[in-house]
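Translate sequence into structure tokens.
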Amino acid sequence: MTKQIKSKGFTIVELLIVIVVIAILAAITIVAYNGIQQRAHTTSSKTAAENLAKKIEAYNAINNAYPTYATAANIVGTSAGQLGSTTDSSLTGSGITVGTPTATTNDTTVQIRLCTTASPVAGTTVPTGYVLYIWDSTASPAALVPTQSGGNGTISGTTGSCSNATTSTTLSTVS
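Result follows.
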């Protein structure tokens, strides 16, 4: 009489099935996490643009004009800049950087394009409006998109423009 020994444990096929299921779940989680990160970056950029738009509009309400075109530092500088000179429109401590947003600087960097009726002259040209641009990580492909506007600056779909203006001027980088 031979005894049949029943072994305990898992077969190799069962182990491979478990490993494949775990790998599939990990891949799904990684893809979902990346999408969440991209949406968070875009939301942070939109918040920075909204805050900057509020500061520009506060300046306009107080001074009855948008900040005079000069340089980004002249408009948003912490103490000497036009927005910095008015408490309600100051960017001090806001963390907002004016410049050209990219994939690596997208969270708090906002691009300002001022609308003017003629080629701007530093210190004398008063803008008639503005369009603010951010880096949209969720766009396919990721790109610079308009998100806020004021005065005669308008946004239509993914395009920002200046109505009743002949030019729009992009300001250089300043934090």
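Note: The longest strand covers residues 143-151.
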